[in-house]
C-alpha cells in the first residue's frame, strides 16, 4: 500500500471523521424524508415546492430556525461528502470481487459529488439566495448539448446511462445487496428486519425515480426537444399527469421515505 493510501486509510479510520461522516449521512437521510413529504404533496396536487433535494432544503429554509439549520445541514453534507470521498479512494475492502468493489467506489464518488452540490445549495439558501430551478437548469444544459454535432446521440447516451443506473439501484433493492455494506449483526433482531424492509423499499423507489428521469431525457433526445427533459422535479410532476401516475408517485414517496430511514440505520451500522 502506497503512502497516499495509508494516509487516506488513517484519515478514514479517525474517530472524528467516522462520527462526522455518519452524522452527515443522517442529514442525507433527512433530505430524503423531506423529499418523500414533498412527493406526497405532489400526489395530493398541492406542492408549491421544488420536488427534489433542493426543494427539501427549501422546506428547511421555511422553518423558524431555517438559516441556522441550513448551515448545520451544509456542514453535515460536506462531512458526508468527505466520508464518501475516502470510501471512493480506499473503501469497500470487504468486497471480494474487484469489479464489484470498483462499482461501489464509483457510487461513493457520485454520492460525494451530490453531497458537495447539496451542501453549497444549503449555503445559498442560508444566505438568502435561491439556487435556481433544477429542471430549468437541466433543460438549458440539454438544449446546449442538442445544439452540438451528434447532440441527439449524446443526450440519448446520457438517457441510457441514467436508465442503467436506475436498473442497478432497483436491483440493489430487489436483491438486498445493500446489506453487504452494513454490520447487520450490530442491529437488534427487530431492527434488522425493519432496515431490510425500508432498505428494499428505499432503493427500489429511488431507482424508479431515476428511471423516470432517464425516460424523460430519452424522449428529449428522440424529439430533439430540451423542454421534455428535466430533473427529478419535472419527472415527478410529469408523472402526476399520467394514468396511474398518482399510484406510482405514492410508491416513489414511500421509497424516498424508506431510503431516508435506511440512511439513519446505515449511519449507525455501515462498515
From TrEMBL:
<dbReference type="InterPro" id="IPR009597">
    <property type="entry name" value="DUF1206"/>
</dbReference>
<feature type="transmembrane region" description="Helical">
    <location>
        <begin position="25"/>
        <end position="44"/>
    </location>
</feature>
<keyword id="KW-1133">Transmembrane helix</keyword>
<feature type="transmembrane region" description="Helical">
    <location>
        <begin position="64"/>
        <end position="86"/>
    </location>
</feature>
<dbReference type="Pfam" id="PF06724">
    <property type="entry name" value="DUF1206"/>
</dbReference>
<protein>
    <submittedName>
        <fullName>DUF1206 domain-containing protein</fullName>
    </submittedName>
</protein>
<feature type="transmembrane region" description="Helical">
    <location>
        <begin position="207"/>
        <end position="224"/>
    </location>
</feature>
<feature type="domain" description="DUF1206">
    <location>
        <begin position="201"/>
        <end position="268"/>
    </location>
</feature>
<keyword id="KW-0472">Membrane</keyword>
<feature type="transmembrane region" description="Helical">
    <location>
        <begin position="106"/>
        <end position="126"/>
    </location>
</feature>
<keyword id="KW-0812">Transmembrane</keyword>
<feature type="domain" description="DUF1206">
    <location>
        <begin position="23"/>
        <end position="90"/>
    </location>
</feature>
<feature type="transmembrane region" description="Helical">
    <location>
        <begin position="146"/>
        <end position="170"/>
    </location>
</feature>
<feature type="domain" description="DUF1206">
    <location>
        <begin position="106"/>
        <end position="175"/>
    </location>
</feature>
<feature type="transmembrane region" description="Helical">
    <location>
        <begin position="244"/>
        <end position="267"/>
    </location>
</feature>
